[in-house]
Amino acid sequence: MSWRGFSRRKYHRAMRSPWTWLHILLFGVALSDGTGCGGERLRLGDGTAAEDVITGGLAGQGGNTGGRATGGANATGGSTGGAVSATGGSPEPACEHGQTRGEEVLWIGDSWITIPGTQLTRVAEHARDAGALGANENYWTEAVAGKGIAEIRQQYERRQSGPIKVKVLIMDGGTWDTIWEMGSDASVAEVVAAFEQFLDKVASDGTVEHIVYFLQPELPTIPGVAKLRPGLTRLCEASVVPCHFIDLQPIWDGNEEAYTAADSRIQASEAGARAIADAIWGVMQDNCIAQ
Description:
This protein is about 40% helix and about 5% strand. It is α/β, with parallel strands linked by helices. It has 11 helices and 5 strands, in the order ααβααβαβααβαβααα. A 5-stranded parallel beta sheet has the order 2-1-3-4-5, with helices on both faces.
C-alpha cells in the first residue's frame, strides 16, 4: 500500500496499537546500541565500526583521566563503579570505601614531594572528589626537602611510633644520596641496600598495606637515576607489602621543559607537580588504595 492510500484514520488506528510501539521501541534500541539483529554492528552512512561483531557484554567505559604509572602497578583505568567486562562476564567489584582514614596515609620523602607542594594538595583534591577523603580530612606528611634515604626512613618511624599507625605510604627517596656523591656506584648500592632494609622494616611492623614509590626523571642535575632504577624496581616487585613503582621518566619524556622548574632545574614545576599527583592518584584508584 502506498503512503498516498494510507488514510489518516488508518494511521491513527495503527499508532494506537501496542504492537506498533513495541516494534518502534525495539528498532530504537538497536540503533542506540549500534547493532542490528544477530549481534552485527550497524554501519551508518560511511562510518566504520570498531568491531564487526559484538561478542557479548559492554566494553568498560570510563576510568581515570589523569596521568598513569608506567612501571610496577598497571594503571589502565579506575576501579570505581564496577565496569562490565568486555567479554560478557560479571561486573568488576568496586573498591571498598571507608577502609582507610586520611591520617593513616603518610607522605615521606624529599623536595620532590614538598616543592612546589601541588603534589600533596592535588592528590587530596582527587580523593575528595572521589569521596575517598572527607572535607575536613587530609593526608599526613613528614616529607622534608633535601633528605637522604636514611632520614626518610626516620620520617616513617616517627609517625609509626605514635598512636596513629600507617596504612598507606606515598614516597620518593634516594636521589639526594646520589646527588651528594655525583651518582657514584657506591652511592647507588647504598641507596638500594637501605631501601631493601626499609621495606623489610615496613613489612615487619605489619600495618602498611600499600607503598606507592616514585622515582625522579633522569635530569642532568640528578645523577644516578638510571643506575638506581633497576635495583629499586626489583625491590618493589619483590616487596612483601605491595609496592607500586612509578617511573617518572616516561611522564617527563617530551615534557622536560614544562615539567621541570626553570629556576632550579632540579625540582618539578607546577605542571610537573600536577603530573606527579595525577600519576599517584591513578595508581591509588587502580589498586583500590585508600579509596
